[in-house]
């Protein structure tokens, strides 16, 4: 913690090493007597209303200047670093990430033009457009300092300076830096909210008992800010239910952030979830907020949660329990307030029993569990959904298709829909695109029922069927285990266990 009051030197005599150091800084004060220097470095009391200074980078080619400023600012700053030349400015801005840059206007090129300082200022602003740069200049260069402010500098101080005025300037600059950080965070939230508002209001279409139960459950959860687990086959509309749940919750006006576990490589999942600091790894050229941080105050939708690796499960559980996260490469804990909605087509109950999914995490994410029935169990909803998709795609493709014929409705009703609502949606879209009439008929729908193993000369032996299914899925997916597991309707870890059991 920065000190509110620090005595730099209690005494200073010609025989002490400290007095030798004082001599280096006499230039800064414009005085020839050590006593004046000590008076300038008298204890400075920071008002309690002033924010503590963060990380400060000082760039000046004069060692006396660097020493004096480091001595003055160190008690009040988180960290102070100095540079005699702007040659390594890229390294210091990207790695040190200062809150304030104290920049001289003249270096080795000349001592009057201030052009080196202006060039350095532009380079800093290219690296960080919100950088807070305070220029240092002699009294005679104030016009150039004003030009620097017009070019993007925050303020300037004149040499020799008064300590209290310099510290006050830096405290004002630190307030600006914190304000900019907050504005950046708000801009990200607005962007997330804007993306959410661009998404059409979710509709839960259906009059089946299963859908009525879902709507009723969501209604009872309107004021209950609890984590929800959505279970259902692929294509049943878990994402739609999640958005409907959001729209009817107390967090409806807050960010809704999604992450598909199955689509994110395991090596990148942690950085996606928690974010990372600049320099955390080779390609981390700037900091990035994770999905948990972006969802602060709102909702995080974690799709295909059954694909979480054991390591990711542990880290997610820790974040949910502590309600704090640390970015990759960082040390600062960031508080989070997030409602979690998870979805999966996997049998998490079985995974908990098998030990592939943590029981404590399972209890954390399924305060309320909602089962979404497959479309084949929602017979009365097929026609409602078909009519809805017909209107949607007829409008999208500017087709004057007004109805679905009786023979087509019978075909849709008899089909098993292994791909559920998603398959029905794609079937209607394809039919609308290819149809040249005002009515969709049975011939407009190309529906392929899954082949029977017995009819194909196969067997009913369960182990053989399982072996054939696993071999075919791995072959079709060209060895991609995640895709093969998804095709089989199981988790990647379950697939590995089956491969081991079957000796494949």
Overview of the molecule:
This protein is α/β, with parallel strands linked by helices and 504 residues long. It has helices spanning 17-24, 26-29, 34-40, 63-73, 89-96, 115-127, 142-150, 163-198, 209-220, 238-247, 266-274, 291-294, 310-322, 348-354, 359-365, 379-396, 406-414, 420-434, 462-476, 481-488, 492-502; strands at residues 53-59, 77-83, 100-104, 133-138, 155-159, 228-231, 256-260, 275-276, 288-289, 299-303, 324-326, 333-335, 339-344, 368-371, 403-404, 439-440. The strands form 5 sheets. A 5-stranded parallel β-sheet has the order 2-1-3-4-5, with helices on both faces. The two termini are 60 Å apart.
Task: Please provide a brief summary of the model.
The chain is of the alpha/beta class and 504 residues long.
- Give the CATH architecture of the largest domain: 3-Layer(aba) Sandwich
Using the CA coordinates, give the radius of gyration. Answer: 33 Å
CATH topology (level 3) name of the largest domain:
Rossmann fold
Secondary structure tally: strands: 16
Question: Class of the largest domain, according to the CATH hierarchy?
Answer: Alpha Beta
Give the amount of beta strand, in percent: 5-15%
| Overall average pLDDT | 80
The helical percent reads 40-55%
Content-based structural category? alpha/beta
Strand order of the largest sheet: 2-1-3-4-5
Q: Find the CATH superfamily of the largest domain.
A: P-loop containing nucleotide triphosphate hydrolases
User: How does the overall form come out from the CA principal axes?
Assistant: elongated
How many helices? The count is 21
Q: Note the gap between the termini.
A: 60 Å
């Amino acid at each position: 913690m920065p000190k509110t009051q620090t005595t730099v030197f209690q005494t200073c005599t010609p025989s002490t090493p400290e007095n030798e150091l004082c001599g280096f800084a006499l230039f800064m004060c414009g005085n020839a007597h050590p006593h004046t220097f000590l008076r300038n470095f008298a204890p400075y009391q920071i008002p309690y209303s002033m924010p503590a200074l963060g990380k400060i980078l000082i760039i000046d080619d004069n060692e006396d200047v660097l020493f004096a400023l480091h001595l003055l600012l160190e008690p009040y700053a988180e960290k102070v670093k100095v540079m005699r030349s702007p040659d390594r400015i890229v390294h210091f801005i990207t790695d040190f990430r200062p809150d304030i840059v104290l920049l001289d206007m003249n270096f080795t090129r000349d001592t009057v033009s201030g052009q080196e300082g202006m060039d350095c200022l532009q380079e800093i602003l290219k690296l960080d457009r919100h950088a807070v740069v305070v220029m240092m200049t002699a009294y005679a260069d104030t016009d150039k300092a004003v030009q620097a402010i017009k070019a993007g500098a925050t303020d300037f101080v004149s040499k020799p300076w008064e300590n209290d005025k310099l510290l006050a300037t830096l405290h004002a600059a630190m307030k600006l830096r914190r304000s900019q950080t907050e504005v950046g965070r708000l801009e990200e939230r607005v962007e997330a909210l804007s993306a959410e508002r661009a998404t059409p209001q979710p509709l839960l279409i259906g009059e089946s008992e299963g859908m009525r139960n879902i709507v009723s459950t969501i209604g009872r959860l309107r004021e209950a800010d609890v984590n929800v687990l959505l279970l259902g086959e692929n294509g049943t509309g878990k994402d739609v239910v999640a958005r409907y749940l959001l729209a009817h919750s107390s967090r409806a006006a807050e960010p809704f952030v999604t992450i598909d576990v199955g689509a994110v490589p395991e090596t990148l999942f942690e950085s996606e979830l928690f974010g990372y600091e600049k320099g955390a790894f080779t390609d981390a050229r700037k900091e990035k907020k994770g999905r948990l941080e972006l969802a602060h105050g709102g909702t995080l939708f974690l799709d295909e949660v059954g694909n979480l690796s054991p390591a990711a499960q542990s880290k997610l559980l820790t974040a949910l329990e502590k309600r704090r996260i640390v970015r990759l490469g960082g040390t600062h804990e960031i508080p989070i307030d997030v409602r979690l909605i998870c979805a999966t087509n996997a049998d998490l109950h079985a995974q908990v029993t098998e030990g592939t999914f943590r029981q404590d995490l399972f209890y954390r994410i399924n305060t309320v569990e909602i089962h979404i029935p497959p479309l084949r169990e929602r017979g009365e909803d097929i026609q409602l959904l078909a009519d809805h998709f017909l209107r949607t795609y007829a409008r999208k493709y500017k087709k004057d298709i007004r109805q679905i014929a009786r023979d087509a409705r019978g075909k849709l009703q008899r089909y098993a829909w292994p791909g559920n609502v998603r398959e029905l949606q794609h079937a209607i879209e394809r039919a609308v695109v290819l149809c040249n009439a005002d009515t969709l008929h049975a011939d407009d729908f190309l529906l392929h029922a899954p082949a029977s193993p017995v009819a194909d000369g196969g067997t009913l032996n369960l182990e053989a069927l399982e072996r054939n299914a696993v071999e075919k899925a791995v072959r079709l997916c060209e060895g991609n285990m995640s895709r093969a597991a998804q095709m089989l309707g199981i988790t990647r870890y379950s697939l590995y266990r089956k491969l081991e059991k079957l000796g494949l």
